[in-house]
Amino acid sequence: MGSRPPGMPLVAANWKMNPTNIDDALDLVRGVMSVARGQADKVEVALFPPFLWLTAVSEVLFESGVKLGAQDTFWEMSGAFTGEISPAMLKPLCQWVIVGHSERRLFVGETDEMVAKKTAAALSCELSVIMCVGELADHYDAGTSDQVVSAQVKAGLASCSADDSARLVIAYEPVWAIGSGKNADPEHAYKTMRLIRKIVGEMIGAGAARKVRILYGGSVKADNVQQYVELPLCDGVLVGGASLVADEFAHIVKVTAEVYGHR
Ligand code: PEP
Questions:
Q1: What is the pLDDT of residue 3?
Q2: Within a domain: residue 1?
Q3: Burial status of residue 122 (CB atoms within 10 A of its CB: 0-12, 13-18, 19 or more)
Q4: Domain for residue 4, yes or no?
Q5: Is 2 contained in some domain?
Q6: How many angstroms does the Cα of residue 178 sit away from the middle of ligand 1?
Q7: Whose CA is nearest to atom 7 of ligand 1?
Q8: Is there a domain that residue 47 lies in?
Q9: Which has fewest Cβ within 10 Å: 74, 131, 134, 163?
Q10: CATH classification at residue 133
Q11: Which positions of the chain have pLDDT values less than 70?
Q12: Strand partners, 80
């Protein structure tokens, strides 16, 4: 399991609760597209705007090769679940969904059990899933990152099987690195990604685990992305803040394409 799987690298843009108006969202997607569509044979690019902008963004992305995803989903398909959006609703618009982002775990109280249910529901609708895992600063300082991340991976993938591997991505995002400008030491990122692949292998089989892509996320910028995408087990990056600046995000996509082009 030493080398990366055969799939393309993935560069995912988590816009979070931005931009706050549709005109800015459309400007951003057009800016990103002008570069990303030229790299579509080398890098898979997926944009994750807020739910409200998904329809308009999907129209701009139509047939561009740039993929669209939602930042969250619910685990039921329909019913009395006020405020929620189901995977069945997302499926006509999106190819991707993020589950278990640390901001949802922290601010909305999402548990590992909820993340597992969301992951299973999204996969059942044939959406591809980025499941986020990562330790808090206290865990990192106490040297317990491995235990925390292992537990999150095991719980989050509880219902997954080898059949899901090609549509499953795990983003290792140390929580202390998200939005903080303190990106993780590549050695720490590498060791944790290696651990994640080992656990996934134990759960769904080593062969299938090779198809599961593993990303790094946490203060990735144009000037530091190279050190992550060069890591042997890294299949791409999940980018928050830097994905809101079209030129910077475009640079991240280009660097990723160059590094993987040379592998
Ligand atoms: C994220 O939102 O997943 C993220 C990694 O954010 P940032 O790049 O801003 O740290």
A1: 44
A2: no
A3: buried
A4: no
A5: no
A6: 5
A7: 240
A8: yes
A9: 163
A10: 3.20.20.70
A11: 1-6
A12: none
Identify residue 65 by its one-letter amino acid code: G
Token pair listed for 72: 């969250």
Output the CA 32–ligand 1 centroid distance in Å.
17
Residue of 16, 105, 132 to test ligand 1 pocket, by largest number of atoms within 8 Å of CB: 16
Tokens linked to 152? 């999150």
CB 100 near ligand 1, within 6 Å: no
Q: Do residues 97 and 69 touch, judged by C-beta distance below 8 A? A: yes
- How many folded domains does the chain comprise? 1
pLDDT at position 6: 57
CA of 236 to the centre of ligand 1 (A): 13
240, 16 Cβ separation under 8 angstroms: yes
Query: Rounded to an integer, what distance in angstroms lies between the CA atom of residue 69 and that of residue 81?
Result: 21
Closest C-alpha among 171, 182, 89, 183 to residue 127: 89
Closest C-alpha to ligand 1, atom 4? 240
∠ CA 31-33-36, rounded to 5°:
120
Query: How far does residue 179's CA lie from ligand 1's centre (Å)?
Result: 5
pTM of this prediction exceeds 0.90: yes
Which residue, chain included where needed, has tokens 């830097």?
A: 242
In this prediction, residue 35 carries a pLDDT of 81
Where in the sequence is the domain holding 163, given as residue range(s)? 11-261
68-to-98, 154, 182, 201 alpha-carbon distances in Å: 11, 27, 28, 28
- 236 in ligand 1 pocket by Cβ < 6 Å? no
